[in-house]
Known about the structure:
This protein is mainly α.
Amino acid sequence: MRIFAPKLTVHAHCDLPCGVYDPAQARIEAESVKAIQEKYQGNEDPSFRTRAVQIKEQRAELVKHHLEVLWADYFKAPHFEKYPQLHGLFNDAVKAAGAGGAKGSNDPATGQRLLDLIAEIDKIFWETKQAA
């Protein structure tokens, strides 16, 4: 039975590799993160702020998920060869969405930094789509 056991477990964002990828999914969630950070800053109600942080953290996790799917499933070796900054850009963006970035901060500047990184990824993504 060991011979037939899987050597590697893989995961996809869906059960059927659809080939439909777009950084817009990450951008929309990141826009939500930044908007929540702005609303948090403008409201002193503790209940509102608690709920805002919870939702912001959920949205930041979705940003990370969508970025990681693009990074692992859409972009291939030729893309990384043509755009050598791409690995670093994704790493920076995932970290900017995480606990050390927008997920862990209520400062809208961290949300904007995340959006800026996603915009750079988006630009490269559409360049690769045009070339395909």
